[in-house]
Each structure stands twice: as structure tokens, then as C-alpha cells.
Write a structure and sequence with these properties.
The protein is an all-alpha fold. The chain has one domain. The protein is extended. The two termini are 31 Å apart. The relative contact order is 0.12.
Length: 92
């Protein structure tokens, strides 16, 4: 790679770290909801729309985990992911 300098520190955008953390948390919450017999998609949608943590089970500390996330950032990431997927699927 050009300009490869072993003393140079690579900078990663903070958004990538946040998105990665959000994916990890959502995955854990999804599994906890599924294990308890809930519809994870419906429960997560209810939480994201209302902000009310009662939509999320306390099983496996899922309710505490979901509170770490900024709902607006999660919604933005979900829309971004969906649109990127939809645009790729439509050939645009």
C-alpha cells in the first residue's frame, strides 16, 4: 500500500464503532427475545418507536443492553442498511 508507515496510527471513523456495537447489542437482544418466545421484530419495533423499555425482556440483561443505544442512531442505521440493500437489489 502506498504511504505505508509503521509509525502512523490508522484512524477509524467513530460511526463504524457505534454501528458495530449497535449490531452486537441488537443481536443479543434479538436472541433474548426469541428465547423467551416473543416476536423479536415486533418487540424491537415497539421499543424503537416508543422508547419504552418494557418491550424488551430483562432476560440475559437485554433491557439494560438496549438502553445503551441511541434510538435515533439505530433507526438511521436501519434505514441506511435497508435502502442500501433495496438499491443494490433493484440494480441502482
Amino acid at each position: 500500500m502506498p504511504n505505508e508507515d509503521p509509525e502512523r496510527t490508522m484512524i477509524f471513523p467513530a460511526g463504524d464503532t457505534k454501528a458495530s456495537e449497535a449490531r452486537e447489542i441488537l443481536g443479543k437482544v434479538y436472541e433474548a427475545l426469541r428465547e423467551k418466545g416473543y416476536n423479536p421484530i415486533g418487540q424491537l419495533a415497539g421499543f424503537l418507536l416508543s422508547g419504552d423499555p418494557v418491550y424488551i425482556t430483562a432476560h440475559k440483561d437485554a433491557r439494560s443492553l438496549i438502553r445503551r443505544l441511541d434510538r435515533m442512531e439505530v433507526l438511521e442505521e436501519l434505514v441506511r442498511f435497508y435502502l442500501n440493500y433495496a438499491m443494490a437489489d433493484s440494480g441502482k
